[in-house]
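Priority: medium. Attachment 1 of 2:
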């Protein structure tokens, strides 16, 4: 719910107002977001769209009700596979999208980085 954004910002040591973005199955984006005219996808997070159900997805919207959306096509990628499995389990085609790092720290790039991250911050990293 609404506390997810605050919890993740606390873990990542970010300011509370900082928004997060959704990553969503591309073919379902228009069911959840009002995409700008002539935009059917946003594969590189280049589109800001109004969320049609901000009450259901408070963790991924800005204060003005918009989100910086990333769509994922049926391309066989790992993130696509994750979204498809998540959708089967939850009937929700999107996840909160953020980098795995703490402010001021480098991004986690491999298992050794993930092990270090887990040890330092007490947050389990699944691979």
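Attachment 2 of 2:
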């Amino acid at each position: 719910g609404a506390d997810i954004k605050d919890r993740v910002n606390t873990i990542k040591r970010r300011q509370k107002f900082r928004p997060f973005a959704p990553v969503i199955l591309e073919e379902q984006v228009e069911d959840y977001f009002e995409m700008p005219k002539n935009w059917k996808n946003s594969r590189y997070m280049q589109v800001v769209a109004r969320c049609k159900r901000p009450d259901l997805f408070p963790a991924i919207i800005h204060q003005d009700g918009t989100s910086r959306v990333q769509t994922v096509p049926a391309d066989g990628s790992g993130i696509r596979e994750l979204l498809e499995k998540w959708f089967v389990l939850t009937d929700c085609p999107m996840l909160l999208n953020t980098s795995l790092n703490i402010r001021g720290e480098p991004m986690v790039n491999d298992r050794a980085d993930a092990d270090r991250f887990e040890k330092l911050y007490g947050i389990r990293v699944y691979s």
